[in-house]
Design goal:
It is a single chain. This protein is mainly beta. It has one domain. The strands form four sheets. It has a six-stranded mixed sheet with strand order 9-12-13-1-14-15. A five-stranded mixed sheet has the order 3-7-8-6-5.
Amino acid sequence: MPMRYFDLSEDVYIPGRWDLGKLVDPRGEEVWSWSLMRGEPADLEGQLSVPIRAAGKALDFCHAAFGIPVVNARVAAIFSELAPRDVQLIPVEVGSQPDGYFVLNVTRVVKCIDDEASEEVQYWTLEDGIPEKVGRYCAVAGMRIDTSKVGNAKVFRTWGWHVALIVSEDLKQALEGMGASGMKFVEVTGSGPTASGGP
């Protein structure tokens, strides 16, 4: 059977969940979120930290401000084991939490969005007045990917639409099998968009 893939995001509807703020460097300056979402290794020095903006239930997987993925040590170990070539795990202090947390920097980009099978895609054009973005996606709804272009990637960002974080079915099953909290999976293979917390 062909491998299935899922868009992984934070489940923001968990009652009583915490909310994280902006990622900062040792000088207290904000870390540019794009540097951790462009699908490349990041060169960051010193201890990063992120404040807990609103106290609540600690999650195994969550987002700092602007969609930067943050995971605890248990989740980091799964990514490190199953997708060692696709991720960079950067230690981060989360408030006064005693447990170890990491920024999950996905370091692989795959050009695989299936425009025809997706519900809707829009591209930046010259008329938008941002020349450096011309030819890239400005909107993707009901995303579907062409699995023949994925190769051996277990987790990746989609070319031209880096906000999406895609994981393979076996990685999804491993995360669910350990009972990781905070995750929402939406399948990006198959005939139609379906939110999925199960197989």
